[in-house]
Amino acid sequence: MRIVLIYTLLLPVSALAEIFTIDFVKVLDGNDEEAIYYYENNWKRHRIEAVSRNYIISYQLLVKHSEDGQTDILLITGYASKSEYEKREENFRELMGETRSDGPRLMNGKKPEDFREVVDSAIYVGD
User: Fold this and answer.
1) Alpha-carbon distance 123 to 75, whole Å?
2) Which of 32, 66, 93, 98 falls 20 to 30 Å from 43 in CA-CA distance?
3) Is 101 helix (H, G, I), strand (E, B) or coil?
């Protein structure tokens, strides 16, 4: 136990901090149902499984409908540490291969590029 504590104390703070990724998504041409269906049945399902495997610590899918009819979506994924964040591609590739080998679930046959644009992506470090 002492060895683990000493090792932990020698790590840089950033190696222990939580990492959050945020994708800012704009729904195109009023395709709200298709976009929400896509994220609920693909992105969210993968995050639920990722939490159970301890690949991630949290996720949020937030939807905003503005008065002018525009819908925006925030996709937030939390990782316990920098090392977990760095393993994200490998972990999600494995998970998606096991859970959705036939590809993503789509509504009305529309592909993601038909109903959404990822406007920005960001990485935040927690404390």
Assistant:
1) 12
2) 66
3) coil
| The one-letter amino acid at 50 | A
Domain for residue 96, yes or no?
yes
d(CA 7, CA 64) in angstroms, rounded, equals 44
Q: Supply the CATH number for residue 58's domain.
A: 3.30.70
Residue 11 in any domain: the answer is no
Do the domain assignments include residue 94? yes
pTM over 0.90: no
Positive or negative, the Cα torsion across 103, 79, 117, 49? positive
Strands 58-65 and 71-79: antiparallel
Q: How far apart are CA 28 and CA 11, in angstroms?
A: 44
Rg (CA), the chain: 17
Number of domains the chain is built from: 1
The DSSP string of 48-65 is: HHHHHTTS-SEEEEEEEE
Residue range 101-116, pLDDT digits in tens: 788 999 999 999 999 9
119 assigned to some structural domain: yes
